[in-house]
Each structure stands twice: as structure tokens, then as C-alpha cells.
């Protein structure tokens, strides 16, 4: 080793960066949270009785795809925000593209529908409790995500908490698709999204407190 290299190594001090956690240390709590979310849905709500018939309709898969894409984007955001210095410039595009696409479809449906059909397309029959049920189902996964992130090294704590909440909310919406009778993209584009934003707001609120390290 050259003298200059030795001096540089000694002057830099010890490496105090947190050691990376094993993959299983993250997957186990998240898997348990997802399992609890599914069990909670089955116990409290149950699977819709006409699921097989609904699965034959494009509107059902549009709802599933919307929730799945937002869940993927949410977990990607949570993963990047759990580490300092990660690039997040593309995250708004990943999160916003599915919403913008579904809103365009919803706008076309509203434009084509008659005035008497537009109100049912938006309100459906379950708007009073749909967002609250999604938020409720997200709680086990939300708690697991916060636990995993706390063991990493997030620096933007409010954004990290919001990302954990959104990822959990979007995943809960995906699970909720197995129960929800609503099929209108107009309904899904507003009320499902509202259900995802409830744990997002909660995560942004408590992130600086629970994720501090």
C-alpha cells in the first residue's frame, strides 16, 4: 500500500454506514403483513360471490391493473426512499401514469354516458365505506413496511412514511378487488385512490417520528 493511500484511509475514519440487512429480514415482515391483509379481507368482507363472472369482464382487469401498477410504483418508491441518496426523479411519473391513464378512460366514459348515468358511474353503491375499507386493510402491511424501513437508513422521513403508506394502500386496494362489486373506472379512479391516500397521509404525518434513526 502506498503511503498516500494509507494516510487517506486513516484520515477518513471508520466506516459507520449501517450494514445491509439480509433480504429475508425485509421479506418476512412484508409477507406477514400481506397475509394479514388477505386474512382480514376474507374474515371481515369475503370474496364476492360472482368473482368468476366478474373476472370475465375487461372492467375487472382494468381495476386490478390500476391497483397493481400503483402497488408496484408504491413499493419502488418505498424501496428507494428507504436508502439515502437514491434517485427518485422518475417516481412521480411511475405513480402518476396509471392515475392519468385511468382518469382519461373515466373521462371518456362520462362523456359517452347520458346525464342520468353519470351519477351512478361516480358514486356507485359503496362510496361511503370503500376508501375506509381499503385503508383498514392496509394497516397490517403499513405497519410491516414502517418496521422494515426503520431498520434501513431513510433520510427523507416524511416522504418515506408517505411511500410506505401508499404502497400498503395500493396493495390493500388490489386485495379489496376480490370483494368489491364496483366495476366503473370512474368509481375506481376516485374512491380507490382516496383509499390509498388515507394511509399515505398517515405515513407522511408519522414518518418523521417512527422512522427516525
Automatic annotation (TrEMBL):
Keywords: Membrane, Transmembrane, Transmembrane helix. The keyword Transmembrane helix applies. The chain crosses the membrane at residues 27-47, 59-78, 90-114, 126-145, 157-178, 190-212. InterPro entries: NrsF. This is DUF1109 domain-containing protein. It comes from Duganella dendranthematis.
Amino acid at each position: 500500500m502506498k503511503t498516500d493511500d494509507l494516510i487517506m484511509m486513516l484520515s477518513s475514519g471508520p466506516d459507520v454506514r449501517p450494514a445491509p440487512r439480509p433480504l429475508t429480514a425485509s421479506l418476512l415482515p412484508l409477507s406477514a403483513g400481506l397475509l394479514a391483509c388477505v386474512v382480514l379481507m376474507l374474515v371481515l368482507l369475503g370474496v364476492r360471490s360472482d368473482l368468476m363472472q366478474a373476472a370475465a369482464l375487461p372492467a375487472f382487469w382494468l381495476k386490478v391493473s390500476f391497483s397493481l401498477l400503483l402497488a408496484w410504483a408504491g413499493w419502488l418508491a418505498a424501496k428507494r426512499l428507504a436508502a439515502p441518496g437514491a434517485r427518485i426523479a422518475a417516481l412521480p411519473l411511475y405513480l402518476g401514469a396509471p392515475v392519468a391513464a385511468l382518469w382519461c378512460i373515466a373521462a371518456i366514459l362520462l362523456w359517452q354516458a347520458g346525464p342520468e348515468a353519470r351519477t351512478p358511474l361516480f358514486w356507485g353503491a359503496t362510496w361511503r365505506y370503500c376508501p375506509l375499507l381499503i385503508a383498514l386493510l392496509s394497516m397490517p402491511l403499513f405497519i410491516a413496511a414502517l418496521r422494515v424501513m426503520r431498520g434501513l437508513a431513510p433520510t427523507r422521513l416524511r416522504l418515506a412514511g408517505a411511500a410506505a403508506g401508499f404502497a400498503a394502500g395500493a396493495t390493500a386496494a388490489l386485495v379489496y378487488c376480490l370483494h368489491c362489486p364496483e366495476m366503473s373506472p370512474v368509481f375506481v379512479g376516485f374512491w380507490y385512490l382516496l383509499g390509498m391516500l388515507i394511509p399515505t397521509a398517515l405515513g407522511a404525518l408519522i414518518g418523521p417520528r417512527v422512522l427516525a434513526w
